[in-house]
Amino acid sequence: MALWPKSKMGWIRAGVVVVLAVLAYFLLIPTVGYLQYKPQEGDIVFQSLPPVNELVKIIEGVTESHYSHCGVVAREDGRWLVLESIGEVRKTPLFPWILRGRHGRFAVYRLKAEDREHIGKFIDEIRPFMGRPYDFKYRMDDEALYCSELIWKAWKNATGEHLGEPVRLGDLKWEPYEEGIRKLEGGPPPLDVKIITPVDLSQAKQLEKVFGGGF
Hints:
Blueprint: H1 8-36, E1 44-47, H2 54-63, E2 69-76, E3 79-86, E4 88-93, H3 94-100, E5 106-111, H4 119-124, H5 147-159, E6 167-168, H6 178-185, E7 194-195, H7 198-202, E8 207-211
Antiparallel strand pairs: 1-2, 1-5, 2-3, 3-4, 5-8, 6-7
């Protein structure tokens, strides 16, 4: 039995099989997760972004968490979307959002029954921020917003409540990532700045985890 193709066409067929196998592998986990997850409006979804840049490594490193990105699920024109800040505040269809995550894994946190009455207002409070740029300096102003800040502010504007508690950068594990933080800041790490991280958002008393997705 020949172990290797003997012709050019054989090599092409073998290459196609390999490509299809790789695609199947990378699509399997996100597709299964997408089919298993039963979305509801107001769900907050978390994922690990691919570590293709230093920012992702800093977020996950200083927070000691796999959660480097998050968004809010909403239904619009019959489609499930994720309202998020990545590059800018925007809407992303749910399945491409899942595909973007590392290994296609994601986690879902849902508002508890006593807080679900605020979902409509919560989502409405995200929409005015559409198009705002991403905040690479992680300040809690409205000119630019990072992912968990967008969600935190929308909930606060809708209810007057905190959805998780902001933490000081200086209280996180910032030291191993000082060089990267200095590059983002253009100066020393602002240790007294308070930020709402994805993992601190996920620990809000109003939320409960309903889907693990490999986390």
